[in-house]
Amino acid sequence: MRPLPQPAREAMTLAPVLHALGDPVRLELTRRAKDHPESTCAALAEGLEVPLSTLTNHWRILREAGVITMTVDGRHRRIRVRADELGERFPGVLEPILRVAEEEPL
Amino acid sequence: MRPLPQPAREAMTLAPVLHALGDPVRLELTRRAKDHPESTCAALAEGLEVPLSTLTNHWRILREAGVITMTVDGRHRRIRVRADELGERFPGVLEPILRVAEEEPL
């Protein structure tokens, strides 16, 4: 299992994180990933009517902003929200966003 | 003084708000506007090396997402962050974002 490239915690900045979360599909993917750690990309995207290439792009944006870690596990890619690191770097930012997203269905 | 078109509080959704805040210049403009209510666009953009057309676009994105109210006051446009409405619609989201932005200079 190897993680794909991602910014170190110290290199994260807020605007790209907000940009990454500022899309309804990416927000929903992040919400689901937070609730189901180490799920595969495919499982997390279930039921979303989004082309695979768009999904791939969404995951990349989330990973490059520092929101998620993506690990290659054989043929699967597993996702984990970097909640602890985000919390240290941007205290109090992630939780209310995911709470509101939960009540605002896609 | 008349306000330019903006979404009603009930019509706001989270992703466009995060998208609007997910740009370093827009985040900084919002932070300044929050600290200096009813300032003009020009005053709030002071010192930012951003072309006027880009700034106009930034203010429009913030307004259309519901982050700010823009009021035409003669030749000026005055900005107010819709902090109360954002707080009612998206509890706890705005404050930590602006707090982090404050510590993360542009």
TrEMBL record, chains A, B:
Gene3D superfamilies: Winged helix-like DNA-binding domain superfamily/Winged helix DNA-binding domain. One of its GO terms (molecular function) is DNA-binding transcription factor activity. It holds the Pfam family HTH_20. Coiled coil: none annotated. InterPro entries: ArsR-like_HTH (IPR011991), HTH_ArsR_DNA-bd_dom (IPR001845), HTH_MetalResp_TranReg (IPR051081), WH-like_DNA-bd_sf (IPR036388), WH_DNA-bd_sf (IPR036390). PROSITE patterns: HTH_ARSR_2. This is DNA-binding transcriptional regulator, ArsR family. The lineage of its organism: Bacteria, Bacillati, Actinomycetota, Actinomycetes, Pseudonocardiales.
